[in-house]
Design a protein that fits this description.
The complex is a heterodimer.
Chain A: E1 4-8, H1 12-24, E2 28-32, H2 35-44, E3 49-53, H3 61-69, E4 78-83, H4 88-96, E5 101-104, H5 109-121
Parallel strand pairs in A: 1-2, 1-3, 3-4, 4-5
Chain B: H1 4-30, H2 39-46, H3 52-65, H4 71-80, H5 86-97, H6 102-109, H7 114-147, H8 167-183, H9 194-222, H10 225-234, H11 237-240, H12 252-268, H13 270-278, H14 284-301, H15 304-314, H16 325-332, H17 336-376, H18 389-413, H19 420-432, H20 434-443, H21 449-474, H22 481-484, H23 506-528, H24 533-543, E1 560-562, H25 564-575, H26 577-591, H27 603-617, H28 619-629, E2 630-632, H29 637-645, H30 650-712, H31 718-750, E3 757-760, H32 762-780, E4 783-787, E5 795-798, H33 799-816, E6 823-831, E7 834-841, H34 875-885, E8 889-894, E9 900-907, H35 909-914
Parallel strand pairs in B: 4-6
Antiparallel strand pairs in B: 1-2, 3-5, 6-7, 7-9, 8-9
Classes of the chains: A alpha/beta, B mainly alpha.
């Protein structure tokens, strides 16, 4: 069964590009337009991995990450934070919130792809 | 042999001699070789304290109350002990401030207040009048008694005489003439009346010699020395009691109050102040006076008891008034020459007192009472008159005549019913009222003008009420019930038992009450009062006189500008051209100044001129005159305090420190605030950069992603390839637009934009903008209403910039329009002196709290309804910068759910040109 990936971002063109490479790699792709949408979709069916944009309307990526990590239902869901904020402090914050990886925009599609792949193949260490 | 003409001739010769001495003294003074610059002359002049009261009255008092005459001499002897501190300090103050009288002193101390000076003058004149009448009484009595020689008859036996037949009246006129001749020759009162002092010193010798002569005559002529005299007196039981204190002769309380009274009198009687302070030539003279004056008092008192006892034994039947024993004893012994000498002694005691007192009083009347009033009456034009010296002299001469006539009146009304001593004590008690405000003024900086006014006037009123009014009863002018039952039957107001205070003799009673209210009000009011700047600075100059002892100490408290020539003219008008020139030149020499080439006077020179004038017309008037020629910048109380601070005023200093540290705290707080603002600015700049980077990264991400996808997937079909390339192009455009806008805004904010200002028809610009954006409206199916007149008044603006603003507003309206039934209304119309454009949409609206924020850069106000709006977040910021720059105003009116209206107003070209 194909692994599922949720793309949470509010920039249509970025969603489009991420969706393209994820589908190309054979993953089952879903899309959320803001933080609340992202959480709802996760509740509906826990994805194997979330590509989570930090700067989203209604609920930021940090909040979404925190909520998910507080819920044991998502213990097996990998989270990659994607953000245009490139500071080390932001990266630390993201990882502290429980993100597995942290990707800075503008990212390389190949890097994102290999990180997604790595995370989905390796079992999650609690 | 002692016929009237002989007595008159001798008296005349004596007076002429005095006059010669006086003019010799004046001539020597003019020549700069003063004869009074001697501690002995100084001491003898202070002995003006011993008047006819001493000469005749002491014996009179000793005859009734034994050693009861002594407190009047013990007081001064005690006071002398502290002269080195008190008197010397007052002398120093008077010299530095060029003070002319006791009234001037008080006025000067309390902020150069003319009212206070006037009050002191009035009190002094009224208070001293009894004293002067006492002299008249003594001289006329002694003359009348002597005239009866060889018979010994009392004036009271001769019946009442009319004014014109009254010796005392002629004595008064004679003394007036005498005082005028002696005391009003000069005009600068501070230049010392050297001739007068010389004459007074000489008179002190005459009266002492005369009194010692009669003493020796009684003790060794009539009796066989002290031993014999006292032994014989002891045989009379009536006389023995005179040697003891208490037991009805003189109470301890009275003894004490008389001592206190005379302690104050020796300092504060106007004539004592005159000779001891004003006429003082050197502070060192005080040192000699401190031992020599008590010695003089001892010498003139040593024969008082022997003469009194001798008189009582010689005239046992009480026919002879004890006040005339001094004269009656030699007459009874047929010693004509001695009697004449005694008469001269009494005359000298009287003339010395009257001359000094009237000169002192007339100076006060002219300087502190009349001149301040005259100078203030603009109509008289006195401040413009060229020479006021003559006027001053006339006022003083007139005052002398009036004072003596008043003294004579008092004598006619009261004098005959009282003994000499009692009359004198009334004056002493009046002078004592000056003590609190002078001693307080010299040692307590807290004493204020209002405090002094309150204390002095209250003390004076109590004095008049408890001492003077009762004497009117004695002379039959007031009903006796006033004394026994109180005025209008009010027992508590009985003048000798005020508020029910009994058991005190009238003098002690009066002294107690008057000084109590005097000191109480002076201290009380002063402590509640806030002194003015001048009061403060004068207080400091007085109390700390030894600290500010340079001549122009006062100038530290003065700031202003004055013309040197104007100052010289002013001073010359009062003291005469020659003297003014001399003084100014001396000042210039001592300071190394060249007055001829000096236009603006230094503060020191102005102070110097003021003090010169003060010497002639008193401190208060001098101040008025000087301020008429200078442009004064009055010192504020704060500045005076600051000046005082420099000189170790510990309390004030710590007050300043407190203020300084307070200021420091304030500065620190301001610094902290500035720092916070800087940090805030820094944070804003950081935010801006972060935001800009963020905004740049977003399109860049899309561009990079799709470029990589295109690169890695050469097998993509044409449609998809075309689609992705389109995204890359669009995002690239977005990126460039963003960069342009950031740069644009930066330039606008820095004011570095090139403005192509031209006269614009805004309606044409609006139509062009609508054309440009028409496709947007069509795409979204928005109903657009345009209200635009064919022509509107021109504005002055940069066409491209203003179009950018309009397009921005239009595309914002499109962006926020609802998907269904979207309506946008654009209206252009003149509004007041400007042109107004409204762009109204029916979108989600903006909360009131965000109305300001929407114009800030990157402050896109999104909501659940709108999601993330497109655009850079810089558009409205640029709009605002542009409109501001063009002198207009941009704002939004909106509430959530009710759409938004963005409006701006730009000033008309005409209005702008008109400015």
């Amino acid at each position: 069964m194909a692994k599922s990936v949720l793309i949470a971002d509010d920039e249509p063109n970025i969603i489009l590009s991420l969706r393209f490479i994820m589908e190309q790699a054979g993953y089952d792709v879903r899309v959320a337009r803001d933080g609340i949408d992202a959480l709802n979709q996760c509740e509906e069916q826990a994805p194997d991995l979330v590509l989570l944009d930090v700067m989203m309307p209604n609920k930021t990526g940090y909040d979404v990450c925190e909520t998910m990590r507080a819920n044991p239902a998502f213990d097996n869901t990998r989270i990659i934070m994607v953000t245009a904020k490139g500071r080390d402090a932001e990266r630390e914050k993201g990882l502290a919130m429980g993100a597995d990886e942290y990707v800075t925009k503008p990212f390389s599609t190949r890097d994102v792809m290999s990180q997604v792949r790595t995370l989905l193949e390796a079992p999650r260490q609690p | 042999m002692l016929q009237g003409w002989v007595i008159l001739l001798v008296a005349l010769i004596y007076v002429i001699m005095l006059f010669l001495i006086a003019s010799w003294g004046d001539r020597r003074a003019d020549a700069g070789r003063s004869i009074i610059n001697s501690p002995y002359v100084y001491t003898l002049s202070i002995a003006v304290y011993c008047t006819t009261w001493t000469f005749y009255g002491s014996v009179g008092r000793a005859a009734t109350s034994g050693i009861g005459f002594l407190p009047i001499y013990i007081g001064p002897t005690l006071m002398v002990l502290i002269w080195w501190f008190v008197l010397r300090k007052i002398i120093r103050i008077c010299r530095l401030q060029r003070i002319t009288s006791i009234a001037d002193f008080v006025s000067s101390r309390y902020g150069k207040d003319p009212v206070l000076g006037g009050l002191v003058t009035v009190i002094a004149v009224l208070g001293i009048m009894p004293y002067i009448s006492l002299q008249l009484k003594a001289v006329s009595t002694s003359f009348t008694v002597l005239l009866q020689y060889p018979e010994i008859a009392m004036p009271s036996d001769l019946g009442r005489v009319s004014v014109l037949g009254d010796t005392a009246f002629y004595v008064a006129l004679l003394l007036a003439a005498f005082a005028i001749l002696f005391g009003t020759r000069h005009i600068d009162a501070t230049e010392h009346h050297e001739g007068m002092v010389a004459a007074v010193a000489f008179e002190s010798i005459v009266k002492l010699v005369a009194f010692l002569a009669i003493g020796v005559f009684v003790t060794y002529g009539i009796y066989d020395g002290f031993g014999d005299l006292f032994t014989r007196a002891a045989e009379y039981p009536d006389l023995a009691r005179l040697f003891t204190l208490g037991e009805g002769v003189i109470e301890y309380g009275e003894w004490f109050s008389l001592t206190v009274l005379s302690m104050l009198a020796i300092m504060f009687l106007p004539r004592q102040f005159q000779v001891a302070v004003i006429e003082n030539k050197s502070e060192d003279h005080v040192r000699t006076a401190m031992w020599m004056f008590p010695l003089y008092l001892l010498a003139i008192n040593i024969f008082v008891l022997p003469i009194a006892l001798g008189g009582l034994m010689q005239f046992p039947d009480g026919q002879v008034d004890a006040d005339t024993f001094v004269l009656a004893l030699p007459m009874a012994g047929k010693q004509e020459a001695l009697a004449l000498l005694v008469f001269l002694g009494g005359l000298s005691a009287a003339t010395a007192m009257v001359i000094v007192a009237t000169v002192a009083l007339s100076t006060m009347i002219s300087n502190d009472l009349v001149m301040p009033v005259l100078l203030r009456i603009k109509r008289l034009g006195l401040s413009e008159r060229a020479d006021l010296g003559f006027l001053l002299l006339s006022i003083r001469r007139g005052s002398i005549v009036i004072i003596l006539l008043l003294g004579y009146t008092y004598f006619r009304l009261i004098g005959e019913s009282y003994a000499l001593v009692t009359i004198g004590l009334v004056s002493f008690a009046a002078a004592a009222q000056f003590a609190p405000i002078i001693l307080g003024g010299v040692y307590w900086q807290g004493g204020t003008r209002r405090g002094a006014l309150a204390g002095l006037s209250a003390g004076f009123l109590v004095w008049a009420y408890t001492l003077v009014f009762p004497s009117f009863v004695q002379s039959g002018w007031l009903d006796g019930a006033y004394l026994t039952a109180g005025p209008l039957g009010l027992v508590l107001l009985k003048p000798y038992e005020l508020l029910g205070l009994t058991g005190l003799d009238p003098m002690t009673h009066s002294l107690f009450w008057s000084l109590l209210v005097n000191i109480g009000l002076y201290v009380g009011v002063s402590m509640l009062d806030r002194p003015e700047a001048l009061e403060r600075s004068q207080a400091a100059l007085f109390v700390d006189v030894f600290k500010y002892s340079e001549e122009d100490g006062g100038s530290r408290f003065w700031r202003g500008t004055a013309n040197v020539a104007a100052l010289r003219t002013l001073v010359a008008r009062f003291v005469g051209q020659a003297r003014a020139d001399r003084q100014f030149n001396a000042y210039a020499r001592s300071r190394g100044l060249d007055l001829a080439n000096m236009e603006t006077a230094s503060p020191g020179l102005v102070t110097f001129a003021e003090k010169l004038l003060a010497g002639s017309i008193g401190a208060a008037s001098a101040r008025v005159m000087v301020s008429s020629v200078v442009t004064e910048e009055p010192l504020g109380i704060g500045e005076v305090m600051e000046i005082l601070d420099e000189t170790s005023q510990v309390i004030e200093y710590s007050h300043q420190l407190e203020q300084k540290s307070h200021e420091l705290e304030k500065a620190t707080a301001e610094l902290r605030k500035a720092n916070t603002q800087l940090k805030e600015l820094d944070r804003l700049k950081d935010d801006f950069i972060t935001t800009v980077t963020h905004e740049l990264r977003t399109p860049l991400t899309s561009i990079r992603s799709f470029s990589e996808i295109l690169h890695d997937n050469p097998e993509l079909d044409d449609e998809q390839r075309h689609n992705f390339l389109g995204i890359v192009v669009k995002e690239t455009e977005r990126l460039s637009r963003l960069i342009n806008q950031v740069l644009d805004l930066a330039r606008l904010e820095a004011g570095e934009t090139d403005w192509q200002l031209e006269s614009l028809d805004l309606s044409a610009v609006l139509r062009d903008s609508l054309d440009t954006t028409s496709q947007l409206f069509k795409d979204r199916g928005i109903a657009l209403t345009v209200e635009c007149p064919d022509q509107v008044p021109h504005i002055s603006a940069d066409r491209d910039r203003i179009m950018q603003v309009i397009i921005n507003l239009l595309s914002n309206a499109v962006k926020f329009s609802p998907r269904e039934e979207a309506r946008v209304t654009v209206a252009l119309r003149p509004d007041g002196h400007g042109l107004r454009l409204d762009v109204k949409d029916n979108g989600p609206g903006i909360a009131a709290k965000d109305h300001g924020a929407v114009f800030e850069k990157f402050r896109q106000v999104g909501s659940t309804l709108t999601g993330k709006p497109g655009g850079s977040g810089l558009g409205l910021a640029i709009c605002r910068q542009t409109i501001d720059q063009l002198g207009g105003r941009i704002w939004v009116e909106s509430s959530p759910g009710a759409g938004a209206t963005f409006s701006f107003i730009l000033p008309l070209a005409d209005a702008k040109a008109a400015e």
